[in-house]
Design brief:
The chain is built from eleven helices and ten strands. By secondary structure, it is α+β, with helices and mostly antiparallel strands. A hairpin with a 4-residue loop joins β3 and β4. The relative contact order is 0.13.
């Protein structure tokens, strides 16, 4: 054929031109499920639900996703209202955001209060794909949730969680952290995780009996073996290996829970989450007006430094958020506004500070 190409050549050319286009379309579709630092869109108000039935990994449990989000949204409001009442001055400010490929979140943060230097309670609903190493960071060591997947293959997932850290001003008021979450990955794999723990600067046995006693009661309502198991798990999880001490004085911690009906685990997580104020509020009320010295304040800032070390190096939620392109302000909300590092600080034997270090190095039954 003169001055042109044959019909066969034309077909070949067309095929060659459409293949890159199809490949590009597949890559764009894949990319839309990946999280990134710039995928969050601020909105004035969060939608009624951030969970959509059509979103998420294959084989997922949509009713559980929706139920978990609804429970955590209610808990976020109840807890922030109670903490705001205890503070008596500052108010929680709310930021909402969504993602085009589904999900989003609400951060409620308070600072500069009468009682709390900083307190935050974050809700997140996340759909997407993640590297297998991010999945490993989000689960208990030794649990392989990516079994059977090819090296480098990304894992489709859904996650819904409520996390919080509260940093009071008074050195005798402990810092408190909680996180309750539900995960799904492709193929119908699911699990719950979470817990509540306390990080004081000084040992007050009555406070610890109240805090741990509250969560023992919660655990006993669902499984008599839970408290002993989850208390020991918290003591292991919150260890700072390079210091040889725990971040605080524990609580309960659990992960990869899928050994029974999901509704039963949900009810346990619900009661544990809804017991945060009961466990923590009276302790803050008891100590918020205690007198303290400059030295005691500096000790508090030193212990906050340990808190920062754990969160940035070892905390499972922080590592997961950073590896999956989470909203950075929400991820780092857990950090205190002020902290202190003093070279080779070793408390003098026989002091309250030394007693606290002993409790962090030798787990106690409260």
């Amino acid at each position: 054929m003169r001055g042109g190409m044959s019909l066969e050549a034309s077909k070949t050319k067309k095929k060659e031109s459409t293949e890159p286009e199809a490949k590009k379309a597949d890559e764009e579709k894949k990319d839309s499920a990946m999280l990134g630092w710039d995928t969050h869109q601020s909105v004035d108000e969060a939608p009624e639900s951030l969970v959509r039935e059509e979103d998420g990994p294959d084989g997922g449990n949509y009713p559980m996703r929706a139920k978990m989000e609804k429970m955590l949204r209610a808990a976020q409001l109840d807890i922030t209202t109670a903490i705001q009442d205890i503070d008596g001055a500052a108010k929680f400010q709310e930021d909402c955001w969504t993602r085009a490929n589904g999900g989003g979140g609400m951060s409620r943060v308070m600072s500069g209060g009468n009682v709390f230097e900083k307190a935050g309670v974050n809700l997140s609903v996340v759909y997407g794909t993640m590297p297998q190493e991010a999945l490993q960071a989000a689960t208990e060591r030794g649990i392989d949730r990516a079994k059977g997947m090819k090296p480098g293959e990304r894992v489709p997932f859904f996650a819904c969680g409520l996390s919080s850290v509260m940093h009071p001003k008074n050195p005798f008021c402990p810092t408190m952290h909680f996180n309750y979450r539900y995960f799904e990955t492709d193929g119908g794999v699911w699990w719950f995780g979470g817990g509540t723990d306390i990080t004081p600067c000084y040992v007050d046995e009555d406070d610890m009996k109240h805090f741990h006693g509250t969560y023992k009661e919660v655990c006993d309502n669902h499984d008599p073996a839970y408290y002993e198991e989850f208390k020991a798990w918290a003591d292991r999880y919150f260890l700072i290996p390079h210091r040889g001490e725990t971040r605080g004085l524990g609580g309960i911690f659990f992960d990869d829970q899928n050994d029974r009906d999901p509704d039963k685990i949900f009810e346990f997580a619900k009661e544990a989450c809804n017991s945060v104020v009961k466990a923590y509020g009276p302790i803050v009320e008891k100590h918020k007006d205690d007198e303290f010295t400059q030295e005691q304040k500096e000790w508090q800032l030193m212990r906050r430094g340990r808190y920062v070390e754990f969160n940035l190096v070892y905390d499972r939620g922080t590592v997961f958020g950073l590896k999956t392109g989470g909203r950075i302000e929400s991820i780092l909300m857990s950090l205190p506004e002020t902290a202190r590092w003093e070279y080779n600080c070793i408390p003098e034997e026989g002091t309250p500070e030394a007693e606290f270090i002993d409790a962090c190095k030798n787990a106690r039954d409260w």
